[in-house]
Every structure is written in structure tokens, then in C-alpha cells.
Amino acid sequence: MPLTATSHIIDLATRSHTAALAFNVITLEHAQAIAAACERTGLPAILAVSHNAVRYHGDDPAVIVSACAAVARRCRLPLSLHLDHIEDPELAAEAPELGCTSVMFDASKLPHEENVRVTAEVTARLHARGVWVEAELGEIGGKDGVHAATARTDPDEAAAYVAATGVDGLAVAVGSSHAMTTRTARLDQDLITRLRDAVDVPLVLHGSSGVPETELVDAVRNGMRKINFGTHLNSAFTAAVRDALAATDRVDPRRYLDAGREAATEAAAAQLRLLGPVRPVPAA
Ligand code: G3H
Ligand code: ZN
Fold first, then answer.
1. What is the CATH number of the domain that holds 49?
2. pTM of the predicted model as reported, rounded to 2 decimal places
3. SS3 of 85, please?
4. Closest ligand 1 atom, CA of 179?
């Protein structure tokens, strides 16, 4: 079906008090797995391509994003395209041409005032093209490979940041950390509730792979409206590839990539069933 707007999936989640799920795509098989998970569950999802994934594919976003678009158009359930953790305003500005209806602009490494200024500029530029914009306040750990779940977003600062930048969604630091391979992070549920009350845009959780399922359910109950997974799918994918490689000395990559893709499909489907927006459209 045609590409869906990310804002539509988030609205659906907001209205049903559930969450829009975004899954990071690195390879074509990730995109296919996420689309298959949507078809298996009857639920929509967001295909997220990070700045790092763009770098991996030769710094040309069209390489992987156009593959995602082709997969999404073949899918019988709604999928949207999202640019994730984009650090370069010029790359963010390419979103509409790429078919991406949302961008997470990540200025969290910049000093606060510069973060606000650059994010406001990028947001205004993208809003003029109808793109939904997410930004991050309170640097969420793990992006540099060092797990740090100590950062916390202050509710008053969050409200001021949203007002000053005009962003449509806010990624907040509440106890998660990127790239964890064990689900041992503890979320500050009380802080999530206070952030939800302080800001009038959807809250976004990054680093969700390291968060136990019960904590994710509570986070959605307390107001998280977009949940981002990356590593969780990679763990499932890579474990299945390892097993497949160990089981044979055949060299056709389709044998082990297919095993990885199926494992990632089930991993994504399980998270969609647990947290995803309820019944948007029947699976065709
Ligand atoms: O933006 C992407 C997410 O925050 C993914 O984080 O790989 O720890 O699940 P994760
Ligand atoms: Zn993230």
C-alpha cells in the first residue's frame, strides 16, 4: 500500500493510549522483517533509518531509504519512513524527497542553547514541507557504546524546549540507554508521568531494547507514545544467523539471511502485539 505518514501512526497510538513502534533498519532484511511483522500482527509500524545506517550505506540516504520505500509499498499494512538520530541539518532536509514523513533531529551533543537554536531552525524548515519532527532533550546514553542510563530530562526544561523549538515529539531520558543486549534497564515511571503532564507533544522512548517488557507496558500506560527498537531485532537476527551458519558449510547467504530475517520478524511482531496501536486496518 502507499506510504503512510508517521504522524498518522502516532495519532492512532495517542487516540488508543498505545504506542507507535519504530524499528531501526540497517539492511534490506530488517525492512522486510518489519513489514512481515506488520502483516503477521495486523498492526502498522515506522521504518527508521539512522544517520549511522546512512553512513554505513556510503553516506547516500537513498540507497537504504528507497529500499525501505519499496518494501513498504509491497506491504499490506501501513508503514511510514523516518530518519533517525540525524545530526546534519542538510540530511534532515532531504526527508521529503526520500519519502520520509518524519525526522528525529539529534542535536543532543550540542550545548543547550545551540541545540535549541539549530533544532528550531531545522523544525521550521521541515514543517514547511509537512514533516513531523522529533528532537531529544537530556542526552540518552549508549550512542557511543558506553551504557549510561543516568541522564534525566527535567519536565520544566522539556516544556520550555518544546515551546522554543516547535518540535512535534520529544525523546526523553528516563532510564533507558541505547544498544543494550540485556533487558535490565529500569525506567523512572514517575518522571514519565510528570513529563507527560508537562509537555503537550508525544513522548518518545529510545534505547527500548534494554527495557523489560513490563516496564515498557507501564511506560506506555504512563504516556510514552513512540517506542524505538533497534538492538532487539539485531540480537534476534544475529543469533539466528549464527545458528544457521553453524548448521551448514553451504555458502549461499540466502540460507542464513533468511533465518535472521525470520527471527527479526518474530521479535518485531512480539513487540507490536505487546505495545502497538490497536487494529488500524485489517490485514489483507
Ligand atoms: O533510535 C533508535 C533507538 O533508540 C534504538 O535503541 O537499539 O537500544 O533499541 P536500541
Ligand atoms: Zn535512539
1. 3.20.20.70
2. 0.96
3. strand
4. 8
